[in-house]
Write a structure and sequence with these properties.
The protein has about 80 residues and is mainly α. Helix content is about 90%, strand content about 0%.
Length: about 80
């Protein structure tokens, strides 16, 4: 997920420099990709790896917290 955040920051700079009118589209695409990856990771863990409900909940909460932190960091770096 860190790599995705880095790709977002670098991609934002490239789009801003070469095609600023497409920044909104870039943001929406990256937000969708990020959300789908997080959801897929949680679903795969819950379905294939987790041994019990408590394990699943802890993993899901950890990933959600990391997702929120990543969003805050990328927004701070962007502004």
């Amino acid at each position: 997920m860190t790599l995705l955040g880095l790709a977002y920051v670098k991609g934002y700079d490239v789009v801003k420099r070469h095609s600023p009118e497409h920044l909104a589209h870039f943001y929406l695409i990256m937000a969708t990709v990020r959300m789908l990856l997080v959801g897929t990771a949680v679903a795969l863990y819950v379905l294939l790896i987790a041994s019990d409900r408590e394990d699943s909940l802890r993993f899901a909460l950890t990933i959600i917290i990391m997702y929120v932190v990543m969003m805050v960091v990328t927004l701070k770096l962007r502004h």
